[in-house]
Write a structure and sequence with these properties.
Elements (H helix, E strand, L loop, with lengths): L4 H6 L26 H12 L19
Length: about 70
């Protein structure tokens, strides 16, 4: 079973529909600054593991408070 649209296309599944957002696994949020090496490494790891790239709770800008 395909984990993403890209996997489905590679497998020739042209009618693939991803799971509803509420049913997808939730990626843990990160406090890394956008554009930083740390954030890019986190996004790369999410991509490699097939996780969603973004979490609504990820740090969005410099002014966001660190937790």
């Amino acid at each position: 079973m395909a984990r993403s649209v890209i996997d489905a296309i590679k497998d020739g599944l042209w009618d693939y529909e991803p799971e509803e957002p509420g049913k997808q696994q939730q990626t843990p949020a990160t406090n890394a600054l956008p554009g930083s090496k740390e954030k890019l490494n986190i996004l790369a790891e999410r991509l490699r593991s097939g996780e969603p790239l973004w979490n609504p709770s990820d740090r969005m800008c410099y002014r966001d408070e660190e937790e």
